[in-house]
Amino acid sequence: MPMIIPTAALRSTLLRSATFRIVPLSARVMPCAWTKVNSISQTKSLHNSARLWSKKVAVSEGSNIQEQADPEHDLEETFEEFTARFEKEFEAAYDLFEVQRVLNNCFSYDLVPAPAVLEKALRAARRVNDLPTAIRVFEALKFKVDNEQQYKAYLDELADIRKELGVPLKEDLFPNGEPETVLAKQP
């Protein structure tokens, strides 16, 4: 059975006659945490260019390190495939639990979902008749984007669907702040 060791330890100690599996701390390390993203298209290019996957490394006596492709972990997903997958999952969501589960999975990646995915999420929330989930889509979007301009760009892109479904923003419902502070101020 191969040993599991971190990448840094493999660099510092080259053990002989063993097969190691390099397991990154995060299977999907994206540069979004360090890089400012100024547009929706930049998010797409970052997703396509920055992937960190597990590799098998064979170390044998008297030889150099050789990387071997691991078919189990060579599943690279493009932004278009990601978008298509979540559009399909939102269309198939049949109850509130499924809609919220897919929404949680969609926002768990280190990228901002495409407007088409968010539209499918809003339609799924409407299909299961849950307005709070639709409002939370925009809350999650606000926390996911890097700056206010990106948030406004998404709001502009999704304005028609918001109007069609009648989904307000949290900022519209509570213009003075959080619901708790608004309710506490009322006599």
* Second-tier CATH architecture of the largest domain: Alpha Horseshoe
CATH topology of the largest domain: Serine Threonine Protein Phosphatase 5, Tetratricopeptide repeat
Order of secondary-structure elements: EHEHEEHHHHHHHH
Strands of the largest sheet, in order across it?
Answer: 1-2-3-4
Beginning-to-end CA distance, first to last residue? 68 Å
Q: Please report which band the strand proportion falls in: under 5%, 5-15%, 15-25%, 25-35%, 35-45% or over 45%.
A: 5-15%
Mean pLDDT: 73
Count every beta strand, where a strand is a DSSP E run of 2 or more residues. Answer: 4
Could you give a short account of the major beta sheet?
4 strands, mixed
| Oligomeric composition of the shown chains | single chain
Unreliable stretches: 8-37, 48-59
Please estimate the helix content. Answer: 40-55%
Tell me about this structure.
The protein has 187 residues and is of the alpha+beta class. 52% of the residues lie in helices and 9% in strands. The chain folds into two domains: 3-73, no CATH class; 79-185, Serine Threonine Protein Phosphatase 5, Tetratricopeptide repeat. It is built from ten helices and four strands, in the order βαβαββαααααααα. α1 links the parallel β1 and β2. 18% of the residues are buried.
